[in-house]
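Notebook, bench 3.
Goal today: get a predicted structure for Protein-serine/threonine phosphatase from Chlamydomonas euryale so we can plan the truncation constructs. The sequence was checked against the plasmid map this morning, with no discrepancies at the termini. Length recorded as 184 residues. Pasting the sequence as submitted so the record is complete.
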Amino acid sequence: RTAQPGGAAALVALLLDPLAGALHTAVVGPCGFVLLRPNAAAREMDVASAWRPYVSPAARTRHVASPDVRPLLGGDDPSAAYEEQLLVQPGDLLVAGTHGLFDMVWFHGPTSTNLRRELFQLQDSGPSRTPAAALAHQLASLADSVAAGNISSSPLAQQLAREGRSLSPVQDVGDVAVVCAWVM
């Protein structure tokens, strides 16, 4: 869903070495992903990827731009590229989304514990019972619900409060697009 024209974001994720489970990712624009891994002892999904939106200050400035894309983005420097290589394993869940998802939904830290427990239960019951597209729809609906209701508890609102600024739902709430994939 897009509220306003003009924004551009792309995330590329390639499983280049299926035998080793090596996932290569690259990010352009205001989007990102988290890789969640089942933790049977804690009965929740642990974050296995390095990106920590609203936890790591570096998370706000990640870009990758090829020479072909740079002019469209205003000349981003390829040395500012963000690329990540991860090892994935069966049961992992890749959640990719635009900044609107990560602005409204916590995936890291104690605030996200209930969500990560619910995702573990879905994974534990078998990913085939919860199609990735249905899960993506649920996460997008959660982000929309937070934006329309208890927005003050969102990651974005809390970050802006730390910066001494209040959140404007009209100006600050971004578009929400989500893609999920279970690793089989």
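The chain has five helices and seven strands. The chain has one domain: 10-182.
Flagging this for group meeting.
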